[in-house]
Design a protein that fits this description.
The termini are far apart. The protein is built from 13 helices and 15 strands. The longest helix is centred in the C-terminal third of the chain and has 25 residues. Helix 4 crosses helix 9, helix 6 packs parallel to helix 7 and helix 11 runs parallel beside helix 13. With 387 residues, it is of the alpha/beta class. The chain has 2 domains: 129 residues, Aspartate Aminotransferase, domain 1; 223 residues, Type I PLP-dependent aspartate aminotransferase-like (Major domain) (Aspartate Aminotransferase, domain 2, 3-Layer(aba) Sandwich). Strand 5 and strand 6 form a beta hairpin.
Length: 387
C-alpha cells in the first residue's frame, strides 16, 4: 500500500489535548501546536479496519486477550529486537507511565531512592515524587551538541544514596539518544553490582533512523522490567494499552500485586484489538512512516543549519522529537518562552519541563506533515534570525 503522510488532518474540535486545550493550559489561542508527543497522522489503515470491525459489533463488554494477542506482541519484539518473552512474562497495563508508577510502589518503599537521568520525560520526576520516594538525578552530559553518560557519576549517585531503582529512558526522550550496547552493558553492570532494579521505558523503541538500532535492555539483563506500548509507534495513545515484560518471577509477582491493589483489571476493549492488529499487520505502514519521519528530521537539520545557525539541533538518533538548543542567543528562560509563544506563535515544550538541565532548550514534535513542520521552522526563523 501507499500512505499519504503529507495530508493534513484537522484535529481541532475533537477534544484533542494537543489542539483543543490552549485556554485550559494557559496558552493563547491560535498557536501552532508542536508539543505533546502524539502524531498528526491517522493510524495505519490495517488497524483502522480491525477497529471498525470491533465497533460494528456494537458490544463493548469486559474483554480479555487470547493467545493470538500475546503471540503478536512477543513476535514483534523477538523479530525486531531479538528479545524473547513467554506469555507469563507479559503483563498488560493501561499505559507506560501508569506502569512506571506501579514499579516505583511495587519495588521500593517510601523514602527509598530512585535514580533518573535528566533532562528526561517529565513523568519520571512525578512518579517518584508523587509516591514519596527520594529523587536522585544523574544528569546526562551535554558537550559539543551531543549527550553522553558519566558512568562514574552515575555509580557515585547510586552508592551515596543507596539507590534501589533506576528508571531508564531508552531511546531517550527528549534528547534523542539511542543507547549503544556498550553503554547499556555499563549501566547494567553498575546496577547489578549495587542490587539496583532497572525499569527501562522503551516506548519509542520503534523510532530509530539510518544505521542506528535500538538494543532492548531485556537482551542484556533478564531481571530488568521492560515497558513497551504501541501508542507512540501507531498513534494509539488514547486507547490506553501497554505491555510490560517482567521475566523475573518475584518482580512480576510484586508488580501484579500492585496492579491488584490499584483495582485495575481488564484493559480497553478497542485498545486490545488495536494493539494486536498493530503488531500483526502494521509493519509496512511503520516502514513508510519511518522513511517520512527521517525526511522531516533531515529537512529540519538542513533548515536550522542554513537559516538559524545560532541554534543547535541535537541530532536525534531516535524518537520523532527534536531537542533544540537556543542557549547561544543569551536569553533567559522566561524571555525565550515568551518569544516562542508571543513572537513565533508556537506551542512547544519548554526545556525546564524535563529538568533543570533543560534550560535553554525547547522540544519540538516533528511527527506531522512536512508543510506543518516547515511552517514552524519559518516562524522560528522570522522570530530569531536577527538575534
Amino acid at each position: 500500500m501507499t500512505y499519504n503522510f503529507d495530508k493534513i488532518t484537522d484535529r481541532t474540535g475533537t477534544d484533542s489535548l494537543k489542539f483543543d486545550f490552549a485556554r485550559e493550559r494557559k496558552k493563547p489561542e491560535g498557536l501552532l501546536p508542536m508539543w505533546v508527543a502524539d502524531m498528526d497522522f491517522p493510524t495505519a489503515p490495517e488497524i483502522l479496519e480491525e477497529l471498525q470491525k470491533t465497533v460494528a459489533h456494537g458490544i463493548f463488554g469486559y474483554t480479555e486477550a487470547k493467545s493470538d494477542y500475546y503471540e503478536a506482541v512477543s513476535r514483534w519484539f523477538s523479530e525486531r529486537y531479538g528479545f524473547t518473552a513467554e506469555r507469563p512474562a507479559i503483563v498488560k497495563s493501561p499505559g507506560v507511565v501508569f506502569a512506571l508508577a506501579q514499579t516505583v510502589r511495587a519495588f521500593t518503599r517510601e523514602g527509598d531512592a530512585v535514580l533518573i537521568q535528566p533532562p528526561v520525560y517529565y513523568p519520571f520526576f512525578e512518579v517518584v515524587r508523587d509516591n514519596n520516594r527520594k529523587l536522585i538525578e544523574a544528569p546526562l552530559v551535554y558537550s559539543g551538541g551531543a549527550y553522553s553518560i558519566d558512568f562514574a557519576e552515575f555509580e557515585r549517585k547510586i552508592t551515596e544514596n543507596a539507590v534501589k531503582l533506576f528508571l531508564l529512558c531508552s531511546p531517550h526522550n527528549p534528547v534523542g539518544r539511542v543507547w549503544t550496547e556498550g553503554e547499556l552493558r555499563q549501566l547494567s553492570d553498575i546496577c547489578k553490582r549495587h542490587n539496583v532494579i532497572v525499569v527501562s521505558d522503551e516506548i519509542h523503541c520503534d523510532f530509530t533512523f539510518g544505521d542506528t538500532r535500538h538494543i532492548c535492555f531485556g537482551t542484556i539483563d533478564d531481571d530488568a522490567v521492560i515497558a513497551t506500548a504501541p501508542s507512540k509507534t501507531f498513534n494509539l495513545a488514547g486507547l490506553q494499552v501497554s505491555n510490560i515484560f517482567i521475566k523475573n518471577a518475584d518482580l512480576r509477582r510484586k508488580f501484579r500485586d500492585e496492579l491488584d491493589r490499584s483495582g485495575y483489571s481488564q484493559l480497553n476493549t478497542v485498545g486490545l484489538a488495536a494493539c494486536r492488529a498493530a503488531y500483526e499487520k502494521g509493519g509496512e505502514w511503520l516502514s513508510a512512516l519511518l522513511s517520512y519521519l527521517k525526511g522531516n528530521i533531515d529537512y529540519a537539520e538542513s533548515f536550522i543549519a542554513a537559516r538559524l545557525p545560532k541554534l543547535t539541533l541535537v541530532h536525534p538518533e531516535g524518537t520523532y522529537l527534536l531537542w533544540l538548543d537556543f542557549s547561544r542567543l543569551g536569553l533567559t528562560q522566561d524571555e525565550l518562552d515568551a518569544r516562542i509563544v508571543q513572537g513565533a506563535k508556537l506551542w512547544l515544550d519548554s526545556g525546564p519541563m524535563f529538568g533543570e538541565t533543560g534550560a535553554g532548550f525547547q522540544r519540538i514534535n516533528a511527527a506531522c506533515p512536512r508543510s506543518v513542520l516547515n511552517d514552524a521552522l519559518i516562524r522560528l526563523e522570522k522570530e530569531f534570525s536577527g538575534d
